[in-house]
Amino acid sequence: MNKARGLCVLDVDGTLIEEEVIDLLGKEAECENEVALLTAQAMRGELDFESSLKKRVCFLKGLSLDVFERLYRQIHLSKNAKQFIKVLRENQIEVGLVSGGFMPIVERLATELGIRLIAANHLEVKDGFLTGKLEGEIITREVKEETLIRWTEELDLPIERTVAIGDGANDLAMLKRAGIGVAFCAKAIVKEKIPLQIEERDFSRVLKLIDLF
User: pLDDT over 90 for what percent of the chain?
Assistant: First the structure.
């Protein structure tokens, strides 16, 4: 494998895919409105991400792990996302997924798209059912930034050769830290702080913006 010329780190929910998986899980748990409200507030930066995520995950207690099989069939990649990733890889730009969402979905997306660098939250499971708790490190705004830096070091790349793309308050630190930060169909708090913005949910627009570094 050729040495990577760059790194592009993508947020998942609301960026790579159209949906917020936590909201779909809330619907499965018949707590759709409560969960969606907390998600919207967290993405706007009105609530601390970690504490709001723990509250939302509490609503999921008792859901079967099989739920992720159904949900995976309901999610949609953002327009031209697959082609975008293909072009990056053809140009020796490594792609990573860093998500405040959940590993069962992110792992499958990564497999489908041929991506090896992933970071996402782990849900605690007991006897095949969600316990309503999280395991391990929570993917907060700070952890997203740290993950970007760690992958850059692993690939032996300067930070200037990185792109980060996201939409919510949880993405702000990595968007600011990357060589190029792109606000993709982003919340107001992100658009206030990140000058490079894509308003249309179409990854071909991102290609034009970054011009492959």
Answer: 95
Q: How many CA atoms lie within 13 A of 11 on its CB side?
A: 33
What mean pLDDT, rounded, does the chain reach?
A: 96
Question: Closest Cα partner for 207 from 83, 118, 112, 58?
Answer: 83
Q: Give the pLDDT confidence of 166-180 residue by residue, as tens digits.
A: 999 999 999 999 999
**What distances in angstroms separate CA 107 from CA 26, 62, 116, 118, one per listed residue?**
20, 22, 9, 7
d(CA 84, CA 47): 32
Place of tokens 């309503």: 132
Spatial separation of the C-alpha atoms in residues 44 and 167, rounded to whole Å: 9
Supply the residues annotated as catalytic.
Answer: 11, 13
Query: Which has the closest alpha carbon to 94: 132, 52, 150?
Result: 150
Q: Tell me what percent of the chain is helix, strand and coil, each rounded to the nearest 5.
A: 45, 25, 30
- Angle value at C-alpha 88, between 84 and 91, nearest 5 degrees: 145
Global model pTM greater than 0.90 = yes
Q: Are 106 and 68 in contact (CB under 8 A)?
A: no
Q: List strand residue ranges (DSSP E) for the chain, in order.
A: 6-10, 93-102, 117-126, 129-135, 162-166, 180-184, 197-198
